[in-house]
Amino acid sequence: MKRDLFRDLAKAMLLGLILAAACFALVFLLGLVFGQSGVLSGLEAAKDALCLLAAAFMLLLAGALLQKGKRPAAFPAEKNGWRRRFRVVGPKTVLLCLAVGCVVLAALADALLRRA
Q1: Measured distance CA(18)–CA(12) in Å, rounded
Q2: Can you point out the beta strands (E) in 2-111?
Q3: pLDDT tens sequence across 47-72
Q4: Cα separation, 52 vs 38, whole angstroms
Q5: Exposed/middle/buried for residue 28 (C-beta within 10 Å: 0-12, 13-18, 19+)
Q6: Domain extent listing, the chain
Q7: Which residues lie below 8 Å from residue 20, measured CB to CB, with a gap of 6+?
Q8: Taking Cα atoms as reference points, which of 26, 42, 32 lies closest to residue 112?
């Protein structure tokens, strides 16, 4: 049980970091191409985009937490293969891990900006 929980949390956190890294790379390249100060504008744009994405995930998480117990059949967790990928954690925990992954990479980009 504990092993499955840690495996699911690691898988969700890795998914969050991969999604955040893809968003970071895309927005960094756009900021690099269209920005005025090169790498600094790319880092600033990527940091802002990751913060915005994390805020959107947290907003979705807050809405999901407000719906607790009102419509238990609204999310068909067993029908779409969710349990094949995550045995213990639910969609709310995965949303939290996605937001945390975005915040971690945004903090890394902010640290790089502060050093420059």
Answers
A1: 10
A2: none
A3: 999 999 999 999 999 998 888 666 55
A4: 21
A5: buried
A6: 2-115
A7: 50, 53, 98, 101, 102, 104, 105, 106
A8: 42
